[in-house]
Amino acid sequence: ADLFSKLRKDDLPVTVIHEALNEFEEAKGRPKTLRADLDKALGVLEAENRIMYRQYDGKWVVFLI
User: Fold this and answer.
1) Going along 5-58, which residue ranges are E strands?
2) Cα-flanking dihedrals φ and ψ of residue 60, to 5°?
3) Packing angle, helices 11-27 and 35-47, rounded to 10
4) How do residues 6-38 score in pLDDT, each as one tens digit?
5) How far apart are CA 1 and CA 41, in angstroms?
6) Distinct helix (H) and strand (E) counts, the chain
7) Taking the mean position of all CA atoms in its chain, how far away is CA 60?
């Protein structure tokens, strides 16, 4: 639990995830996800300890557990 608490999100990885998600959705012709909706979804996963954020070689990686 202590390790997980150190890996919780800060604004940088969530901003990167949001931008990548919207690029993907735009390419698929779908509407963009609002940042508030993404924060809510990530908050649920964090409360259940089902998501971690790590940075490897300058790139953010999201792990769903």
Assistant:
1) 51-56
2) -80, 135
3) 120
4) 555 667 788 888 998 999 999 999 999 999 999
5) 20
6) 3, 2
7) 9
Cα–Cα distance list, 32 to 5, 50, 51, 56, 61 (Å): 29, 24, 22, 27, 21
Half-sphere exposure (Cβ direction) of 51: Cα atoms closer than 13 Å? 19
**pTM surpassing 0.85?**
no
- Do 4 and 52 meet the contact criterion of CB atoms below 8 Å apart? yes
CA 42 vs CA 8, 10, 27, 35: distances in Å? 10, 11, 23, 10
Give the residue among 64, 43, 44 at the shortest CA–CA distance from 53. Answer: 64
